[in-house]
Amino acid sequence: MARRARGIYRRKDGRWEGRYLLDGKYKSVYGHSYGEAKAKLEAYMSKRAAPPTKAIAKGRMILWAASCEEWLDQKKLCLKQSSFVQYSCIVRKHILPYWGQRNANELISASVNSFVKALSERLSAKTVRDILSVFLQVVRFAEKKHGIHIDHEEISRPKAQTGNLSVLSHDEQRRLSCFLQVNPNRINAGILLLLYTGIRIGELCALQWQDIDQTAGMVSVTKTIQRIADPDPDSKAKTRVIIDTPKSRNSVRLVPIPSFLIGLLSNIRAKPDSYFLTGESKPMEPRLFQTKFKKALEQAKVTETNAHALRHTFATRAIEQNMDVKSLCEILGHATVKFTLERYVHSSTELKRSGMERLAVYL
Length: 363
Fold this sequence. Notes:
It contains 15 helices and eight strands. It has 363 residues and is mainly alpha-helical.
């Protein structure tokens, strides 16, 4: 049987639908047969791939929006679904509304800086930097394909803000750990796994029992769960949950499990293909786990925080206990030791005081 082209589907009403991306949104062509839908889709793609007409080259008004669409089409082939949806949302919500109707010859550093300023008035510095990163990728694409040029060096980038990331105190960690072990269940075991392995919330939610080798004391991290914007324009739901590969290539890893957790896991173990947090064939999504985590904090009388604070706490405690940074970097699934130190390791007051007291050896 011949392999069908990507982007062509049979609808419930019997018609065939071919989808394409236009201005960051999916559009469709229809046919009474697969061949008819394919022919219409190929005709559209062929027309779009044709060299710009003189009118477009002269006015350049259509060129900018078209470049965004072409860039997204190219990225769709090499990005994870979650990343592609994120890029599409940035293009549709932030880039096209500002630039879509402008002439491409207005694309100079001054106009880009005005764009950045407008974004900064309503969005965080990190969000603006993310939008600008996508925007400049489209610009570089347009430079190669259509000859647009701006001086990237003169663009003002918002300064990255490094806020204080939440870390449990030693007392809070002891109280939480005690509560979780005295009240064993799947959710509490999951919280302990986050706190003592540093895996991410989405990775925990995607974890199945077949990923846990209790004999070797290792957990295999190969997938993650996350909620993304639904790319289907016909869908009534705005978002949907997907299971995908982890955040990066380095995030696929084996993580040792502390020995004190092995016995606890034995008491709740389920079938190999069932999910760790539910014991069933259906996983728990991160948003629900966050709700259950906050309830556990309340019961343990620990200050409310988000579950990602457990990852920060794990990294900080590992450094306090003199774990070598290279090992910690690999356990966390980071690409570089520098990122581990700058982003996830927090020096506590106790650790600073201990370091200062050691200086007394020179007296």
